[in-house]
Amino acid sequence: RSRRRQQSENPAWFPWPDKETCILDILRHLPRSLFSDAQMDVILWGIASFGVSSAPSTDAAKSISEYLQTLCGIQTERQKGPLGHVYYINQLAGLIRQEMGNPKIRPHIRHYPEESGQHVEHAWQAEAWKTLDSDLASPMVRVGDQDFYVHELTKLNDGTLVMPFRWFTRSQGLPGGPEQEFFGLAWSVEVYPTPDGGGYVVHQHQTIQFPASRLLSSFPYLVETHDLDGIPNPCNILGTFITSNFSDIYLTKMYLYVYTSSHDHEIQPWSLTSAEHNFANRWRVLAKGHEVLNFSMWLYCDDTSGNVSKKWNKHNSFLFTAAGLPQEYGHQESNVHFLCTSNLAPPLEMLDGITTQLEQGQSEGIWVWDIQRKAMVLTIPAVLAMLGDNPMQSEFACHVGLAGKYFCRCCFVKGRDAEDEVPVPAQGSLHDDVSIQSDASDVGEEGGKKHGRRKETIQELVTRAKRFVGISETRHPKKTIETLRNIFITSQKYNGKTQAKKIVTQTGVKDTFLESFNQHIVAFTSKLPTNSSADQKQKLVDNFVAENIPSEPNIFSPIWRIKGLDPHRDTPVEILHVILLGFVKYYWRDAISRLSSPQKEVLIHRLSSMDVSSTGLSPLAGETLVKYAKSLTGRDFRAIAQVAPFVLYDLVPKECFEAWLALSALIPLVWQPVIHHLDSYLATLELAIDRFLHCTANWTPRWFNKPKFHIIKHLPMHIRRFGPAILYATEGFESFNAVIRDHSVHSNHQAPSRDIGRGFAHCSRIRHLLHGGLFFSPSLASEGATAPLTQSAFSDNADHWVSAGPLPLKLARTGLGNLQSPVARAYGLEHPEGEKMQPGMSDSVPRSYPSDMRGLSGRCIYSKAAKFNQPASEVLTLTKLPNAVSSADTQRFHLYEQAVSASLERYQVGHHVVVEASEVSPEQLCVGKVYEILQMSSGTATAVLLQLCELGPVDEAYKLQRIKPGEWTLVEAEV
Fold this sequence. Notes:
With 975 residues, the chain is an alpha+beta fold. Among the domains are: 3-78 and 742-826, no CATH class; 140-280; 425-473 and 575-717, no CATH class; 851-972, Roll (SH3 type barrels). Helix content is 36%, strand content 19%. It contains 34 helices and 28 strands. The protein has a 7-stranded mixed β-sheet with strand order 1-2-16-15-14-18-17. The protein has a 6-stranded mixed β-sheet with strand order 9-5-6-7-8-10. Helix 12 packs antiparallel against helix 19. It is globular.
């Protein structure tokens, strides 16, 4: 039977032919539960032993998987990089198509910046999105049956002619809410007569803001009606003024001048539209009447080992998530998308392939079926920021790295000169030197070989510390490219290697992509005959460069080809590596190295006996945290950061403890998921950073040998630019390393880049199908199609776009007995379709619980300690607040131990929580202790009995406010 016929055998299991094939296909492509062919044979044998005879063989299952990949999968493309390495990359356009056709994800993706005042919670509310390159931002809004584009003359409903240059939204409710109203920013326009009929001058110094409801006539309409309206042709843009200092305008057929009191200024020519597209926005021409939307992303790169063993097998991998997703979706592992990996090609060589795909998408757009609009939409991909650890971000920024004299990728802060380093004999272990300057886990990140240093004078130490805690001249792309060009020109000179290295040292600029070409030149130079003259050698070098080395810009890092990206500003401080794997790790190792054996035992018992349930942590393993301090992970340091001051108070020197207190005060500020007032928050954050650095310097300035103590100074700038730091924290990407490793293990290692890429392409297909994502109907495709049909499919007919049948969707969401579905966990399907996890809600009770109770108890978290149908006499709330519930004697109550807060965190009876309720305190937040979580059986409203805490004086030891029990109150569950 043909595979096409197999697909129609049971439409309920579409696009799989039957249940058995569907299950086996899913099993083979679960991200964290991959099976080899040998393991699949064992599984099939087990299935056959149960009497199931219709299961396909491993080869048949693989064949069907490949066929389904042509229907709705992602294409994995072979690339040969500029440096000669072969690697494979998953098609970016295909991944974007899947996101836009995914009913679980698409409704949450934003495409326009939001003006939210001082409130910043999401990336689209921050500066970077608001100032995105106008050719990458969403260029149009649709009002009625007209499309209004930026850089096109537009008429408002009062007759005013304007030139829009940005569209944005404002929430009609709370910031970030679903109800958004469109607004526009425009430049003012004036009409000026000319001998050939007049035209328009755009005043870019005069900005107008207006709601989209005021839009009256779009550019095409004005072109048709301008004669009737008695205005010049809207295609005739004479030019634009940047300055407002003008008194008169003189027009000729060729030039437009501005006369000022001092001298003449030639007007700037208008270049944002051109005659090539009849002076319309080029996206209007490409869209052909469809909407055009921006698709911004966080692009991430990191190295991981492809081996399960400790033997390092380096794989550099690129991943991305949609920046338009809210926090709770963007950090889900199922929403992290794989692009490429290689154990041979360096990151910038793979970035070249990604950039080529980006350039194509930014030039032509990417056609997608928008499941929300039920129409074809043209999307514009854009990289909002490049994420990674510090060495990777330095490589992106063409920076020498943390070991350089100019060690900051954002500014020109100067560290110690290389000439200050002189060989010294090995020293015995001293607390300060060992704990601060020796850091085994940082060798790969902050330097290689250890060097001795001559002793600094007090004045030198003070000067360096001042530079360190300050922010120096900012790096700019234009200046960096000029430096790279200078390095390349110098490298082409005979014996120019030393001078080129000197430029790198003096500027901190180093392009590893360019360096590979420079090495070819150096290798050629070293083989030149020694008896030739310098001029002859230089001529040979010039000929070699002309014949074998690419020309600009192809010799430079592809980062400079990513439109709208400034790698010095758009590589935000990554709080996982800078704070948890930086400061907390440094301080913890230092503290452990200072303790005697008896003190370590005390610390172990303090950690193990501490109640950390209110923090959402599991009980601490004190022995592990102390004895294995040099082998801890980010998760361990996250716990340590919250408890360290309460267990170290009498075990470390006072200066050390003060630094711990400052760090513990800084961390909650940095991890804020929502910023209610940006300016106030940043001022508080800067003070907290300064306090932390001051306490660190007061302890010992030797800490300032660590570059991260300077890098943290740039965090406020990045928060203003991109939003809360937690948005671009990389924990989700880091956890994805394990998935990459699993795919590497199941590769035959002949072409791991290809095998891993194809494996993730299959996982993306399974995710898309089980989410109910749409794809082009295979019945409309031609026979023998090999590429994914959706790749080239274009149809405005909604009937041409289909999804998986009802049974695969049900299978993925349904558990067996008391077992939750592992497929649902793997692909983010824990909650019913269309249901977002809301405050006061969590997972439903197990299916074994009576069905008539499941709908009510879904508002809280079911546990064995929960009590149902309790009389009023058993409810503590009615004892403390007798009038809290009307007709309490006739009511029945469900009592729970746990619920979900407004911040989507679990809390339980006995925890202290922060309350934001106007009836409790209209001006400030309150802290209260949870005593009861109850739910009336006659309704779904959940309430929490709290004993509020009154704030007392600041504790001198911990620098924290004391609290004491206060009045009782009943609040809603969204605490």
